[in-house]
Design brief:
The structure is a single chain. This protein has two domains: 103 residues, Immunoglobulin-like (Sandwich); 111 residues, Immunoglobulin-like, CATH 2.60.40. It is built from one helix and 17 strands. The strands form four sheets. Strands 1, 4, 5, 8 and 9 form a five-stranded mixed beta sheet that branches. Strands 3-2-6-7 form a four-stranded antiparallel beta sheet, with no helix packed on it. A hairpin with a 2-residue loop joins strand 2 and strand 3.
Length: 248
């Protein structure tokens, strides 16, 4: 009798855990959906400027990142965007050192209500530039994720050539003829491929330029794959590279 009672208690506890876990997942997903379609706007900043060392992002004159950003960093690092007030905002990215040779990058950006945005900085610290794009998030209802691709590798006075992006996990080309400063829309991509990495190749060829580290892509998330650094550099601090960061 005692054994039966104990078994019932264990089963009830397990059922409670399953229900709680299910509710938590649904609640988290609802929070994310509300967060990205709310009354404000969200912002991420990817630092693709070659040689960036102590960059801070400012919105209406106020710094929004707590730690300095270097080339290849993204803010916020967690993948959830920083909340900003919708409307026309004065943006700035600058190095805070008094000895820096990097001029401040100032620009105005109109953030629409419920819009999600990513600021990509690029070029070099002597002539930093930026491109701000909408981050059109779609939360899948299945086990896939969403991935988009960007080409911000610097090539001096010459234009960075177009590139293709290959998914090594799928063993197929997933983006073609990506021009300098192009940012694609998100595409459907499988998740939890054990050997997933993204390889950048010279467009239309098998010439490998750079390969990302192996990533485990999680269902219902969104990612950005960026070709960055100095296109001609195969070593050193400005080496060409591939970054993968989380949008949601």
């Amino acid at each position: 009798m005692q054994l039966n009672s104990l078994s019932k208690l264990v089963l009830m506890a397990l059922a409670g855990i399953v229900i709680l876990s299910s509710c938590q997942k649904s609640f988290d997903k609802k929070l994310a959906a509300d967060y990205y379609t709310g009354s404000g706007s969200t912002l991420q900043a990817f630092i693709g400027t070659v040689g960036a060392a102590r960059n801070y992002v400012y919105v209406d004159g106020k710094p929004v990142n707590g730690s300095a950003l270097v080339t290849g960093n993204v803010f916020p690092a967690t993948g959830y965007g920083y909340g900003v007030t919708s409307g026309l905002r004065n943006m700035m990215v600058r190095d805070t050192s008094s000895l820096t040779t990097q001029p401040q990058l100032s620009f105005a950006q109109n953030f629409e209500i419920g819009g999600n945005y990513t600021v990509f900085t690029y070029d070099t610290i002597t002539a930093p530039k930026q491109k701000t794009v909408r981050t059109n998030l779609v939360i899948p209802s299945d086990t896939t994720c969403r991935v988009r691709f960007a080409n911000f590798a610097y090539n001096g006075l010459a234009v960075t050539p177009a590139v293709d992006i290959v998914s090594l996990g799928k063993n197929e080309v997933v983006a073609t003829n990506l021009q300098y400063t192009d940012v694609t829309e998100f595409v459907v991509h499988p998740t939890r491929i054990g050997t997933e990495a993204f390889q950048v190749r010279l467009a239309g060829t098998s010439t490998v330029l750079a390969t990302s580290t192996i990533s485990t892509l999680v269902p219902q998330r969104s990612y950005t794959v960026v070709y960055r650094g100095s296109h001609r550099a195969t070593s050193g601090t400005s080496i060409r590279a591939v970054s993968v960061f989380l949008n949601y």
